[in-house]
Design brief:
Blueprint: H1 26-46, H2 51-74, H3 80-109
Helix pairs in contact: 1-3, 2-3
Bound molecules: zinc ion.
């Protein structure tokens, strides 16, 4: 067990077990996913997709989706708003992966 609070300044929530490593509470973890997903999406639309970027995206999506699945099945939030955010994060990830794969297909036909 950890007694370390979420690393975001001013947050007093303890991270769930699956997020000890990140030291983020669920809410801030989901906010982080949101930010990173948008940063990747921006990179996808701004530059030519490299194998490195695509690999980074796929790895991020797979690892994050696995964590979200653990949270959703073992320790789902009671709060309706947070449940909605959890679902939304899953959809963002699926969308990001689809975009990365679509970019790759475009490259192949070029
Ligand atoms: Zn927090």
């Amino acid at each position: 067990m950890t007694t370390t609070k979420c690393k975001v300044g001013g947050c007093t929530t303890f991270p769930p077990p699956v997020l000890y490593e990140q030291r983020l509470c669920l809410e801030h973890y989901l906010a982080d996913i949101h930010d990173r997903t948008h940063a990747f999406a921006r990179q996808l639309s701004n530059q030519e997709t490299t194998k490195e970027l695509e690999a980074a995206i796929v790895q991020f999506v797979v690892l994050t989706a696995a964590k979200i699945a653990v949270i959703g099945t073992q320790n789902p939030p009671q709060d309706q708003l947070l449940r909605g955010k959890l679902l939304n994060a899953m959809l963002l990830l699926a969308d990001l992966r689809e975009r990365a794969e679509r970019n790759e297909k475009q490259e192949e036909t070029r």
